[in-house]
């Protein structure tokens, strides 16, 4: 996905004489990705002269009151989390045909999971572009977004490589606040996520490194199975920011070892591993990867089963991530 060049004629054009309201101001819709109830499309904003992204419900979910409420909540949470590592929201609205929608900045790049897949396959160019130190920096940047969200009373609950966007110009964005928990707000029975919105033509995952989509269930616990904290697996309602610390630790383990630490053959085995199994440090799982001991220490502290033994804030974890010497 490349950046669109700025076209002088577009910047000098007059405003449309009759500026349509709502979604009518956007043209040239193109499908980008879709999930269980929502879709992402790129389109052109005739007023600002830029390409943007719109998230809206799929036609079959337009009349679902719960899905409408969730999408609106996601839009407002995302809009209020104004941080360099979150995506800017430009507009929120409702259309007679499209239903609830919100408009975001279009960011060029790819999600971290795609990068890890290529590294797992031994792609030389990707390995050179994303050495261990760069992968640690990406997790640290995503954690900065979490730190800001936690300060605003928001718990993400679905931190995973598919939700970490790596831009073509070095930016890192933490996406998809669709199952976020806001302190003092009703939980609204946010569902377990099987994956984020995914391109329809995405290649199958490489052996030994597969996305959360590979695990399916009718369970209603919010999050993605491979990255859930023990509190999420146990279905506890009173989770706090330390749950995000655990999920970030799973991501850190994965970017270091290029392996998911708790993956089982099915959801039940994966949940058992999260609740009961002590995983080896990343350096033992991938002994030839050159993983420093200081990175092992950060991972293993973040992955403590007992929240009281983890980092008590994501800021503490970010500090130690910045101190890792590779």
Automatic annotation (TrEMBL):
InterPro entries: Kinase-like_dom_sf (IPR011009), Prot_kinase_dom (IPR000719). Residues 193-235 are annotated as: Disordered. Keywords: ATP-binding, Kinase, Nucleotide-binding, Transferase. It comes from the Bacteria. One of its GO terms (molecular function) is protein serine/threonine kinase activity. The keyword Membrane does not apply. PROSITE patterns: PROTEIN_KINASE_DOM (PS50011). It is an enzyme of class 2 (transferase). Pfam families: Pkinase. Residues 26-322 form the Protein kinase domain. Its EC number is 2.7.11.1. PANTHER family: MITOGEN-ACTIVATED PROTEIN KINASE KINASE KINASE 20-RELATED (PTHR43289), SERINE_THREONINE-PROTEIN KINASE NEKL-3 (PTHR43289:SF6). This is Serine/threonine-protein kinase PknD. It comes from Rubripirellula amarantea.
């Amino acid at each position: 996905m490349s950046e669109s060049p700025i076209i002088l004629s577009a910047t000098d054009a007059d405003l449309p004489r009759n500026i349509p309201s709502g979604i009518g101001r956007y043209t040239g819709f193109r499908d980008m990705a879709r999930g269980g109830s929502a879709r992402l499309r790129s389109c052109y904003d005739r007023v600002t002269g830029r390409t943007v992204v719109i998230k809206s419900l799929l036609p079959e979910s337009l009349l679902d009151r719960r899905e409408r409420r969730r999408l609106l909540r996601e839009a407002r949470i995302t809009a209020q989390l104004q941080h360099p590592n979150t995506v800017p929201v430009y507009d929120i609205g409702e259309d007679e045909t499209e239903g609830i929608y919100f408009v975001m900045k279009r960011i060029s790049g790819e999600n971290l999971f795609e990068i890890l897949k290529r590294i797992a396959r031994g792609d030389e160019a990707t390995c050179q572009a994303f050495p261990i130190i760069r992968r640690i920096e990406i997790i640290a940047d995503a954690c900065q977004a979490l730190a800001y969200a936690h300060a605003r009373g928001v718990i993400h609950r679905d931190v995973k490589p598919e939700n970490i966007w790596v831009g073509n110009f070095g930016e890192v964005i933490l996406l998809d606040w669709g199952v976020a928990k806001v302190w003092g707000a009703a939980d609204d029975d946010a569902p377990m996520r099987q994956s984020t919105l995914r391109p329809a033509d995405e290649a199958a995952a490489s052996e030994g490194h597969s996305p959360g989509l590979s695990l399916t269930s009718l369970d209603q616990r919010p999050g993605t199975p491979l990255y859930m904290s023990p509190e999420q697996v146990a279905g506890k309602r009173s989770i706090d920011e330390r749950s995000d610390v655990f999920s970030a630790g799973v991501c850190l383990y994965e970017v270091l070892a290029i392996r998911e630490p708790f993956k089982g053959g099915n959801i039940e085995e994966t949940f058992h591993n999260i609740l009961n199994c002590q995983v080896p440090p990343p350096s033992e799982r991938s002994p030839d990867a050159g993983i420093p001991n200081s990175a092992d220490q950060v991972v293993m502290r973040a992955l403590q089963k007992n929240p009281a033994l983890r980092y008590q804030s994501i800021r503490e974890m970010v500090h130690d991530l910045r101190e890792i010497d590779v």
